[in-house]
Amino acid sequence: MSRWGFVGRMDELNRLLSAATGAEGRGLFFSGSAGIGKSRLLREGVAALPRDGYAVWSIAASATTAALPFGGLVQVLPAEQPQGLSPAGVLRWAVDVLQQQAAGRRIVLAIDDAHLLDQPSAALVHLVARAENATVIGTLRNGEQIPLPIRALWTDDLVDYAELSPMDPADSAGLLAAILEGPVDATSADRLGRLSAGNPLLLRELVHAASGSGELTRTYGIWKWTGRLELAPSLTDLIDTRIGQLTPGVRSVVELVALGEPLGLHLLNQAVEPDDVETAEERGLITMVRHDRRLNVRLAHPLYGEVMRRQIPVSRTRRLQARLAELLEQVGKRRRDDLLRVAVWRLDSGTAQDPAMLLDAAGQAFARYDVPLATRLARAALDAGGGFDAAEALATILMFADQPDEAIAVLDAVSADIRGDRRLSRWLTVRGMVSYWGLSRESTVEEISARGSELKDSADQARVMAFEGIMRLHRMDTAAALRLGQTVLDRPAASVAARELARCTVAYLQAAQGQLHRSGTAVSLVQAEAARWRADMPYLQLALELARGTRLALAGDLAGIDAIVADEFADLAGAGDFRLGTGYLAILQAYAARLRGQSDAALRTALEACAVLATSRVYAGLAHAERVQAAALRGDAAQAAEAMAEADRTHAPGMAVLYPWLEQARGAALAVAGDLPGAVKQLTELTDRLRVDGFAGHEAHVLHDLVRLDQAAAPIGPTCSDGGRRTVAQRLAELSERVDGVLPPLLARHARAVVAGAADELLTVADGFAALDLTVYAAEATATALRRLRQQRSPTAAVARERLAALLGRCDLVRTPALQTGAPTLTEREWQVARLAAEGVTSRAIAVRLYLSARTVENHLQRIYSKLGVTSRVELRAALRAIPGHDGGDAG
Signal peptide location in the record (predicted)? Predict the structure, then answer.
């Protein structure tokens, strides 16, 4: 683990530098809590100041020098002070010393922890700040007594004063990656960021503690935190210092809030003295947060709770939790989450005796996708005598906790209790789900179909048929899946959950077949009924997201993908460790980033999905397929091949319906490895398979991949009645009339323009792609147009080159075959010459830098201009930017 680099805070750093170097000469003081990053920010600012124009003195005040006259400035002033001077004379002498040492340069006095300055030093700082050629910058700690001369700096309008806020989530994630020297999965970064409350010092201590206890693990290069925290002594001591000594009454307040937050203020005041609550708030130990009409109490820092909960004796903890449960039961469980809170307190205090309450609470936790909590509550309900219903709930939750073997054991243990159609239908569907997806047993489909025929009740039959239908969809029995789904939808007795599960099956098929409008309507209907099905079948959300995500991906609707990735379900799934949900949404997020050309984000997010789904095979193959695509986009053949092997290894046979994505990725892996004939053959065979299966939505995208490999005029598909075969462009034109949305006609238009060699039409197509935010496709179409224009020696080539440079400027590293084909190739020496020339370096200076003769440089420039089709250095820079993988900077 490395010492962390400076991450984020760029606005604050720029403000600090502006204060130190600005024409007005105003200084700046940042205040904040301990560990918030004040000192590091000040050091970075000081380090960035040029010493030739500024005389910079850094002062670190401390408690050890606070009692000594001028002790704070001991690093600055001479060791021997003149004797016999009055206090005012000493100050004037000190100012003169600084001016002499500055030797005409502007003075910058940087004071860390200025609240610890002794009075004479503080007075000197104030006097320096009044000088015309001096600026004072510094830091202060919140809650500390500040010397009057320092406080007068901003009250006298000599400096600005600003509060340094906690790091935002993005900067916290960046700091985590810097500390661990590698990316951290989004959920872990969010949890650690919230626990540290954006405090860099606490974040580092948390990472040290988690690393030391083995709770930080690395999978596919992505760090993931288990969520378990062992507090290191240094961190505990730090928090203890902040909390300080507590009276018994205030300690009771902090303990109750630590065990029950968020705790209603009305409830807390019934358990403790209100005066103690006020004292705890005044000391900054607790804070009030309004939620709707309720005023809740929380600890001022999340880590206070971690420390307090570890310090409370077990017996006292259980007594306080039981007391909290009693208080909430007395005032009445008015809100939906009150039941869950009471159940948890009862469970933790050992006073939980009502299996019905525990089971209801488990249902609530699962409806929020809090898998660990739901597992605890359902297991407790079963242990308390909850019987069949508790076993069914526990087995269902265990399926999504990646514990299918235990889930099967729980179900088999209550098989003798199956009485009536309702229990049999629920037992069959849960066991079928665990067996099919959890244990990858494809025979499950026939088993539940046969047992389901024993049912007499129409609603119970519908439930089993809905599950059988979605299983058949996943193993590519699409005709049977559609028939079963329609049967359930046509059955009035079907429950809401069964009906909407069946609708998800139909919606997915409609999307794959290119009926995107109908699929969207079906998805909207499922969403509209969410409040009614979530209590019975919260995991139906996965079927909904699969149908919705597939439709959005095939429609090229990246904004729609952004919306569902930012939806409430994503937050709940991440917070509750609902890995199938977070993993699938990460795959979608990577897909959108890839088509935008954000290859860094695409690869990182795909790797996160692989790490999250490492213990589950449901979407693991799909995650690795997206990793293949992201690696291929970057031209990384080795990683693409490795990811393809992992996709094949982890892809479950029962997820056959996802084959288009995997086989499309296989084509990308072959292409990036340089096997273009193999890639064309792979994608051509895939289109044949998709045509047979009726997956027109997928087929359009695979055909477009062939266009991107310059195969728009290649024959494809079966022989027609006239003895010929359609070309890729012709087949895309046919599909553009069958597949919904604005994208298919654009794909077909792209293919026609490639066949015709119409550069102007290609540029128009590129505009269409860019309007959809499909930056990679837009860049490829523009690159193809640029090649045509160069071949024609058209004067509009320069305009196309500028457009390509602008598109690639929106991307990270992008190296696709369509962009690389025909791209000018320069030798390493030519790249060096081109880079310097584009920067405006003269030919003579280039010769000196590269140890070449002037004639050799001129010869290089002539060849470069010829290869790139440019006539000036301005055009040269644009041309370099328009070459994938180069930005006109370090061309070597």
Answer: none
Q: What is the DSSP string of 70-93?
A: TGGGTTTS-SSPPTT--HHHHHHH
List beta partners, residue 29: 138, 161
Cα separation, 555 vs 139, in Å, equals: 53
d(CA 879, CA 575): 47
What pTM was computed for the model?
0.82
How many of the other CB atoms lie within 10 Å of CB of 405? 11
Number of Cβ within 10 Å of residue 813's Cβ equals 17
Q: Starting at the edge strand that comes first in sequence, how are the strands of the sheet with 54-60 ordered?
A: 54-60, 106-112, 134-141, 27-32, 159-163
Tell me the three state secondary structure of residue 538.
coil
Alpha carbon distance 388, 381 (integer Å): 10
Cα separation of 691 and 197, whole Å?
Answer: 53
Q: pLDDT tens digit string along 180-226?
A: 888 888 888 888 888 888 888 888 888 888 887 788 888 888 888 88
Element (H, E) at 707: helix 696-708
Do residues 109 and 125 touch, judged by C-beta distance below 8 A? yes
Contact 611, 224 (CB under 8 A): yes
pLDDT tens for each residue of 723-734: 788 999 999 999
In this structure, what token pair is assigned to residue 215? 């709770």
> Residue 716, SS3?
strand
Q: CA–CA separation, 735 vs 516, rounded Å?
A: 13
Name 767's Cβ contacts closer than 8 Å, sequence gap at least 6. 778
With CA atoms as reference, report the closest residue to 710 among 725, 728, 698, 726: 728
Cβ proximity of 421 and 460 under 8 Å: yes
Q: How many residues does the chain have?
A: 892
Higher pLDDT, 824 or 203: 203
- Bridge partners of residue 135, in order along the sequence: 108
Residue type, 657: V
Q: What is the DSSP letter of 890?
A: -
Question: Which token pair is 194?
Answer: 């919230």
Burial pattern 277-312, b for ≥16 Cβ within 10 A else e, equals: bebbbeebbbeeeeeeeeebbbbbbebbbbbbeebb
What residues does 295 pair with on adjacent strands? 290
Secondary structure (3-state) at 294 = strand
Burial code (b: 16+ CB inside 10 Å, e: under 16) for 656-673 equals: ebbbbbbbbbbbbbbbbb
Specify the pairing of strand 54-60 against strand 27-32. Answer: unpaired
Report the DSSP beta bridge partners of residue 161. Answer: 29
Distance between CA 422 and CA 426 in Å, rounded?
Answer: 6
Residue at token pair 């309900």: 381
Peptide bond into 262 cis (omega under 30): yes
Beta carbons of 273 and 249 less than 8 angstroms apart: yes
Measure Cα distances from 465 to 456, 459, 543 in Å: 13, 10, 15
Task: Name residue 31's beta-bridge partners.
Answer: 140, 163
Quote the pLDDT of residue 98: 82
Distance of CA 701 to the CA centre of its chain: 26
**pLDDT beyond 50 at 892:** no
CA proximity to 349, closest of 274, 256, 285: 256
Distance between CA atoms of 326 and 260, rounded to whole angstroms? 13
CA distance 478 to 484: 10
Helix axes 843-850, 828-838, angle to 10 degrees: 140
| 840 Cα distance to chain centroid | 40
Beta bridge partners of 111: 59, 138
Give the mean model confidence (pLDDT) for residues 284-294.
82
Q: Give the C-alpha separation, 273 to 262, whole Å.
A: 18
pLDDT tens column, 78-96: 767 777 677 777 788 878 8
